[in-house]
Amino acid sequence: MDEQLITSIQQAQTDQELDQLTDRYREYVLTAYPTFRMHYGFSEDLHEGRYSRALDDVKRAAIGRGDRYQDVIRVLELAVEKHLALIKE
């Protein structure tokens, strides 16, 4: 799922399209990583397009867990970059 999602994020043309992609990804993350089901801030930040805050949440959760959330971090870093690029246009 991640590679297809990454390609879709890279090709997003609008913030709305990016929001739709990350909303679907949020559902995946909440299913794949039960820790984030209890973390309302992460879910709300991602849903509201606050990608940097969601990324910070995941990075904090990853402390001491090795590479456990690296796939989520990778996707969110790309979402942050894409969001910044879209708002500069």
Descriptive account of the structure:
By secondary structure, the protein is mainly α. The chain contains 5 helices and no strands.
SSE arrangement:
Elements: H1 2-11, H2 15-32, H3 40-47, H4 51-62, H5 70-88
Helix pairs in contact: 1-5, 2-5, 3-4, 4-5
Rg, Å, rounded: 12 Å
Derived structural class: mainly alpha
Overall shape = globular
Approximate helicity band: over 70%
Estimate the strand proportion.
Answer: under 5%
Biggest pleated sheet: none
Quick recap of the structure?
The chain is mostly helical.
Question: What are the key terms here?
Answer:
5 helices, 0% strand, mainly alpha, 89 residues
